[in-house]
Amino acid sequence: MSENTSIEFVMRGKVAGQEISPRTIGLSQFNEFNQQVEAFIAGSQKLKLDETHVEIAEGSYILRALLPAAVLAGMEPDLKLLARQDVLGELDLKRAEIVQKWQSRTKNNPDLSYELRSQEGSALPQVRISRETDYRVGAIVPWVMVEKYLLGEVLDMGGAQKANIHIRLQREGKTLVVGAAQGYLRDQVENRLYHKALLHVRAEQHYRTGELRNIQLIAFMDYQPVYNEEALERFAAQGAKAWADVPDAARWVRETRGG
Predict the structure, then answer these.
(1) CA pair distance 125, 128, nearest whole angstrom
(2) Cβ neighbourhood burial of 61 (10 Å; 0-12, 13-18, 19+)
(3) Virtual CA dihedral for 178, 180, 184, 188, nearest 10 degrees?
(4) pLDDT value, residue 63
(5) Residue 68 near residue 50 (C-beta atoms within 8 A)
């Protein structure tokens, strides 16, 4: 594999009766396609693209991306999967979304098509998306129903029409929107806003990325962690004394475990 691998993202079609080219493409279409290509390359992993360089080439509208090995490695499994059309459930979530968007566009515009072309000699398949293609979910269904517990700070609650809860997760730090019944929220006696809460929820979870969607509240759970601060300090002091003559505790543990 060369240090940089070239992948061409091609958009074919017509604008006002003229073939799409770097000279005829509209600004909105130009921006949209380039952003979609960037999202496809980065994927849900949000691969860093600082070292990924692009060229615009003649021949319809071609965005040629020069991918470092690390970025290509993140894309390669999905590029190979696209040799089949029943793979949307197996693709990275973001890449599947882009493929669906492109295919949907071609259904409404018979002149429009998209291609992903790798450089000559590459083992990667040449991919074409058009009104004749049928990229779809196959045997693997990407979203499965789950019940989970979400721990975090409640940032917002309520809603005039659709009630929901905005919770910032304690571990990940990201904010999720959880649907809820207005009556259930109205009947809450405890003030949940800007307090830590444990939510029992039902949601759809992507089997590959772990992302949640269509999250619905089942119930608030009691969350009152308690500990004996005096006992904790006593145990900490005992531990510090026991390890006082060990200069590097982590190294000692590694050596005891055999490296």
Answers:
(1) 10
(2) buried
(3) 20
(4) 95
(5) no
Tell me the residue type at 108.
Answer: N
- CA separation (Å) from 98 to 33, 45, 182? 10, 15, 35
> Where is pLDDT greater, at 236 or 10?
10
Angstrom distances, CA of residue 45 to CA of 3, 53, 136: 21, 19, 22
Distance in angstroms (rounded) separating the CA atoms of residues 78 and 94 = 11
The contacts of residue 66 (CB under 8 Å, 6+ apart) are 4, 5, 6, 52, 53, 54, 55
Q: Is the pLDDT of residue 239 over 80?
A: no
In angstroms, the CA 149 to CA 232 distance is 27
Q: What is the pTM of this model?
A: 0.63
Average pLDDT, rounded, for the chain: 88
